[in-house]
Structure of Metal ABC transporter ATP-binding protein:
Amino acid sequence: MQPVLQTSELSVTQGGREILKGINWQVFPGDFTALIGANGAGKSTLVKAALGLLPLSRGEVRLFGQLLHRFKKWDQIGYLAQNSEAINFGFPATVTEVVSSQLCAATGLFRGPNADQRRAVSAVLAQVGLSTKARSLLGNLSGGERQRVLIARMLVTSPQLLILDEPTTGLDEDNSRVLLELLLKLNQEQNAAVVIITHHLADVAGLVNQVYSLSGGKLKLPPVESEGASFSSSEVM
Ligand SMILES: Nc1ncnc2c1ncn2[C@@H]1O[C@H](COP(=O)(O)OP(=O)(O)OP(=O)(O)O)[C@@H](O)[C@H]1O
C-alpha cells in the first residue's frame, strides 16, 4: 500500500537550531495517528515541513507518492493549523462563504458553488453542528464556533489525509467529542488517514491506532500498551 505521507531523513533547522533530525515517517490510508511531545518538541514544525509550509534543510517528502514539489492535488489534504485565533475573523464573510471558498480551486474564485458543492457545504456544516449559523458573519461567532468553521472548511473537499494541530483547543467537551467522533467516522467509513497533534492522549486513546512521540528531534513509537492502540518500543528508523 502506498503511504499518503512519507518523509525520508527529513531535517529542519529554525533559528540556527536543528529542530528535526532525519525523520523517517509514513502515514498510510486508514491510519489514525496521534503525534505527541512536549511543548517545543517540533510537532507543528514536522507537519508544516511535510506540507511544504517550511523549508527542509535535508531529506524529502512524498504526498500520495509524489515528491512534494510536484504534488498538486491539495484538495486531497485537509490541514487545520494550531491557533486558528490568529486568522482574521473580522473579514466580512459568512460561514457558508468561508467553507465554500475551499472549493474555489474547482469552480474558480469568482464563480459561485454549483448545486453539488452547495449540498456538500450544507452537509459538512450539519456534521460540525453549524447549520443554524450558515448565514452568520464570522465576526459574530464564538471561538469554538470559529474553530468548527475551519474544521468544516477543511472537510468540505473530502480529503483523504487530515492533519489537525491541537484541534480541540477552544472546543467545549461536547464539541470536542463530536469532532473526534467525526474524524473516526471519516477514518473508518472513507479510509481517510488522520494525524492529530495533541497534548491530551487520553482523549484520543480509544480512537488512534498508533501514537508517535517527538523528542530530541527524533520520532519514536512510545513503549506503551493501551487498549485500542498498538504501540511498540522501537524508534522509527
Ligand atoms: N520561525 C522560527 N524561528 C526560530 N525557531 C522557531 C521558529 N518556529 C518554531 N521555532 C522553534 O522550533 C521549536 C519547535 O516548535 P513547534 O511549534 O514545532 O513545537 P511543538 O511541538 O508544536 O510545540 P507546542 O506543543 O508548544 O505547540 C520550538 O523550540 C520553537 O521555538
